[in-house]
Amino acid sequence: xxxxxxxxxxxxxxxxxxxxxxxxxxxxxxxxxxxxxxxxxxxxxxxxxxxxxxxxxxxxxxxxxxxxxxxxxxxxxxxxxxxxxxxxxxxxxxxxxxxxxxxxxxxxxxxxxxxxxxxxxxxxxxxxxxxxxxxxxxxxxxxxxxxxxxxxxxxxxxxxxxxxxxxxxxxxxxxxxxxxxxxxxxxxxxxxxxxxxxxxxxxxxxxxxxxxxxxxxxxxxxxxxxxxxxxxxxxxxxxxxxxxxxxxxxxxxxxxxxxxxxxxxxxxxxxxxxxxxxxxxxxxxxxxxxxxxxxxxxxxxxxxxxxxxxxxxxxxxxxxxxxxxxxxxxxxxxxxxxxxxxxxxxxxxxxxxxxxxxxxxxxxxxxxxxxxxxxxxxxxxxxxxxxxxxxxxxxxxxxxxxxxxxx
Length: 407
Ligand SMILES: Cc1cc2nc3c(=O)[nH]c(=O)nc-3n(C[C@H](O)[C@H](O)[C@H](O)COP(=O)(O)OP(=O)(O)OC[C@H]3O[C@@H](n4cnc5c(N)ncnc54)[C@H](O)[C@@H]3O)c2cc1C
What we know:
D-Amino Acid Oxidase, Chain A, domain 2, seven-stranded mixed beta sheet, 13 helices
């Protein structure tokens, strides 16, 4: 499909040099649109390749329009997982309810997409890799914007000068920390930690999710199609964020094993698989809330600026929509200060609505008390006959402008 939007006129102005830190979702999406706007784009990623792994993610509402305009909607439809059922289990593994997966995920059947996070990252990377410079195995060490440009020293020792720098380096963004200070002041901890990894599908599961719960703990097995691999997910309530474990993989494995010791169903096997997993992703459920998303010539996009947490299922959709809006603002405004201001003005309400989903009951899948768990189970039994949930207004609350030409 031919991407829509106006073509940009770059013949009369010097090409803006933009450095993006992070090659996951928001970074490559921003790179694509900035290239369309005539910028010379470099992406630096600390990993050696685009990182695979992670739980399946959702692309919904406004973000569907972004990927359609990028021309990757057909590929993403091919990668769509199409989960059909979600079966909830109690402490000993007995079935509580088995419901249409869309009814609990808040997705619109037939419209919204659910893809492996690694598949989305790979499709975005393939879309831009021939037009954009990628520097893998590297990261920004120092960033000096005291002059008219941004002078960057990389960890590898190379030095380069850019007109703009954008941090697309995730919830624990180094770019944000170097500009705005420690993460703690912007991090809203939501009381949960989670561990995600893959393990063999020895259960014969297909296109479905099995979720086991006790108060404050959940274990899920997520079968992506008929693959011989499952995505395993262990989440638990933890009143204070375990900052130490965030920095140490062994401590993460020990913490998860301790929390789930003695648990029923297939949890002991999952914990063993976690011990051996080479793709473990551990993090806290939290949000990033900042008063501003830029400082001087440096801006933030995606989780680095406004992570909504996995509890909303909107991280990738915000990253895609935010990348489009930032590129559009930069294409429309040669003055970066005006561009960053327009980006914030147009995107902030959309972000706020999506971050607020956690306060509107999105976390009810993981109750922390026996009473709340029973209430949730009663609610789930009521969903058994429901085909799909109504769309959430927050998912489509942002209307995308036609992509702006460079002034
Ligand atoms: C491997 C992985 C697995 C994930 N799994 C899940 C999941 O299961 N569930 C979920 O809800 N969310 C998950 N996420 C987060 C999810 O991708 C984001 O919420 C969302 O897609 C927003 O994307 P983003 O590109 O803004 O940030 P992220 O996806 O977090 O990407 C940030 C990128 O920046 C890179 N990076 C970090 N620091 C630096 C640095 N200093 N220099 C250069 N590069 C840097 C990272 O390696 C990563 O590629 C995962 C992210 C990753 C990287």
